[in-house]
Amino acid sequence: MTTPTRQRAFAHHLLVIDDKVDLLNSLKSLLEIHGFRVSTATSTEKAIEAIKQGNFDLILLDILMPQLSGHEVLRFVQEKRPDIPVIVISGDYSFSSVSTALKRGAFDFIRKPYVADELVNAIQNALEKRRLEYEYKTMQQRIQQSEKMHRFMVNNSPDIIYILNERGHFTFINDSVEKLLNVPKDELLGQHFSSLIGDDESRQHPFTFNERRASGRKAQNREIQMRRRLALNGDGKATTLSVPFEINAMGIYEVDKTGGKRQFRGTYGIARDITDRKQAESFMRFQAYHDLLTGLPNRSLFRDRLSLSISHAKRNGSKVAVMFLDVDRFKVVNDTLGHSVGDLLIQAIARRISNCLREGDTLSRFGGDEFTLLLPNINSQNDASIIARKIIAELKEVFYIEQHEIFISGSIGIALYPEHGDQIDTLIQNADIAMYHIKSHGKNGSQFFNDQMNQAFSERLSIEKDLRSCLEQQQLFLQYQPIYNVETGTVYALEAFLRWNHPERGVILPKDFLKIAEETGLLIDVGAWVVDQVCADLELWQNPVLKIAINFNPLQVEHPDFENMLMCAMQKHNVSPNQIEIEITEQLLSRDQAVIAAKLKRLTRLGFSIAVDNFGTGYSSLSCLHQMPIHTIKLDHSFLRHINDDRNSGDACIVNAIAAMANGLNLNLVAEGVETVAQKEYLSRLGCFTMQGHLFQKPVNSSEARNITVAPLLMPE
Questions:
Q1: For residue 700, is it within any domain?
Q2: CA distance from start to end of the chain
Q3: I need a labelling partner for 359 at 20 to 30 A (CA). Which of 140, 439, 499, 647 fits?
Q4: What is the count of structural domains for the chain?
Q5: What phi and psi, each to the nearest 5 degrees, are found at residue 276?
Q6: In terms of residue numbers, what domain contains 584?
Q7: 389: helix, coil or strand?
Q8: Do 538 and 427 share a structural domain?
């Protein structure tokens, strides 16, 4: 008696075909006992229809069927479903019947009456064979898919993938070689790898492409130049271009079965086009050593070349000149025409200077509107002077930038090796000092360095260093000079003057440190201190009708926090804006007039009055006085120096014109620097009665100024 098999999680589905119903049911019961799921068919037609519609794992077939024999089922399965094994169960076990069934694809032939165990074993063997065939087929499909995917990945790789035999000939190369080197891969198969690299590369890198080492010993990421075909000439020779590639290759070895030794069989390698990377590296190197706006060498490259020039000069006894050039009035161009025009101007300046230099000279952009020049192998100062004069002459010529005619000039400081220093930093610094010297003496010229300049520069650096701490150490203080109305004998206002009580140098006047404060960015803080101190004095004096004039640099007025700074000081000390007169320069009026006019109008609406200081020495147009909210113009003291009884004096004519203009525009006119009675009387005859100067009162400290505001005026005779 057979033992039933354990019920499977997923029972195999069997189709049993027999025209005898009792045998069919008996066989079905037997198979179900062994865990199979069974469908039945009593005719060939029904069997074929069931096979069409169902999915069976195995078919049990009786050959002897009425009408159509079971061989029709075998033929149909062989043609349509060859994956389903068929076991024939038949009472006809003649050689012919068995042979025909097996030829038509039957897996096994069992004769009736069958033995149950024999039948079940045959079924299980057939199902196992079907499972193995299915797994093998699936594995083959996966292998084919994997190979297909591998070929796709290899041929579509951005890199060249190749295999060489032991003699260095290509046995495989992927499709990328055609795209990267413009060479058909079929043309390369069988060729030596040297056909892709030049003779020089073959000599310099004989084992890069055909690396023999394997595993961890192999050399990685070596650079080599490969040939990219551009075109074929008429004689069949190719025009090529060298292209940088990175090679990563390793040797292929096979163990000899007879001797057990490793035998070299060739090389597997990957060649990557690194053109883009090399270009990026080149651009980064260019950025590191060049100015992007002009393409000129930057400070780093200039220093490297200067170091080489000094070393060369030491050996051959020649001289080296270092020039430091600053463009005069460049800030005016930037402020009035915009930075885009300023950038184009810098580029045009660089081209003009370059045209003045010799082969081997170096022009560098040091930053902003500053350039440095290196002149190696010169014999004397005169050689450098000639080039400096040529550059200055070129810069004087008009520049045409975006339909603008721009006039500039240049200030050049020159230092020579070895006279003015034998170190890089010393030469650059001394040329810079000489440039500052020429800028402070009229600009538009050149100057060689000397020791006196160094002393002045050292003093400037000392003042700059001490200036940074003067606010914290409370070294600044104010003096006030009264402005009198000589007609009424009363004080019109006070003008505040800034002083620095230096612990070593004594009292320093603004002309000796405010320019440095502007260049170092300290001017805004210093100006805020002046406003706060003036308001503190007004609060202390408790004189609500007194007005104090404060001088402001254009940089201060243009600062975005200027208005807020003024109002904060007013509120802090409970001072009215009517007590402050803002003194500006004519230079401010030449800036962005719309912006400046709007800011001054806001200030006047708050109660501040506006005065133009040192009038007549700047470049403002008369229209500015009409468009701007100006209340007072202050006649510069330089026009009063030669005033005497001579009515034909040139200065007298200017004073007359300014007085008439002020009267015509209904502006208050204040004369500064009145020192003689003759000057006072002359101004009075012109109708100018508001004056200040040493004739009346020198600037005094705040405690004395408080007394001036209440003391009667003693008019000088």
A1: yes
A2: 155
A3: 439
A4: 4
A5: -60, -40
A6: 474-706
A7: helix
A8: no
